[in-house]
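Ex. 9. Protein: Sugar nucleotide-binding protein.
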Amino acid sequence: MPVRTETSPGTARRALVVGSGFVGSEIARRLVAEGHEVTLGSRGRPTVAPEDYGARWQSLDATDAKACDRAVWTVAPRTVVLVHGPSDVTWCEAHPEEAAAAHRAATAHFAAVPGLDRVVMISTDNVFDGRCAENVESTPTAPANAYGVAKRAAEEVLLSGAASPATALRVSLVYGHEPAGGEKWLNFFASCAHRLARGEPVEAPADQWTTPVLVDDVATVVARLLAHEGDLPPVLHLGGPERVSRAAWAQEIARALNAPTTLVNPVPRAAGRYASRPRNTCLSSTLLPTVPGMNAVPLQGVAAAAESLAPRFLHH
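Predicted structure tokens for Sugar nucleotide-binding protein:
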């Protein structure tokens, strides 16, 4: 793959974020705020125009090797963040081969780029089977579903032969604000909050546990990793500070919205669409705290984050 090596002013902070969904867009926004020159690459234009916060957008099919070549040539990034999909767990379960092929191909195309300062790929807690209440970087992987299989395959592609320094950052269930206007939100928090704010009931498993991490915190950590000048571990974990069930979390959201907690209906994980999710998707890290500056990132707990996010769901 071709790579450009200009060293003109600003080049060292030029970033390409592959994937412009919920997580990718927030990472791009944070990088712009920290002085990076950011291009988002994705098949479709983001819902929120990147130009509104100082980024650019470029059409990109990350499974197409030639399209990735062109993106590297035109953007000339020093860092790449891979947040590519497909990421819908239910869709991946129905299309396992297509999901795995897409994740492997996109990762391989950017792992092959030489001379970058760093590549960070966002991976998932679904690379674990859910048997352990807590998973650290040394916990053996055993994907529980097709999405986990696809992401684990992408990790192996990235780490087995990356031409530039590369790290897979596994994140727990990411959440934050998403605007109203649809019924298919990309994160559990937004889905619950919009329905509870309208007085509608929500179902949430009482036996599926996670360490939710606010999207703002994910973006902050990624920005710190890109700015780090030394070596990094090949795999890092990022989970929120609390282990909660989805049902208990939904009740915290209801309280923050002043909605009746009785609107939350606790259900068994196996009863609905959460059946393919591992029982425990909880991450903790023995390695991230050793990276300089990471201890200064105050990860927000679910109750405090719910209180700070609630006004955005009550005033559409």
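Check your answer against this statement. The first helix runs from residue 22 to 33.
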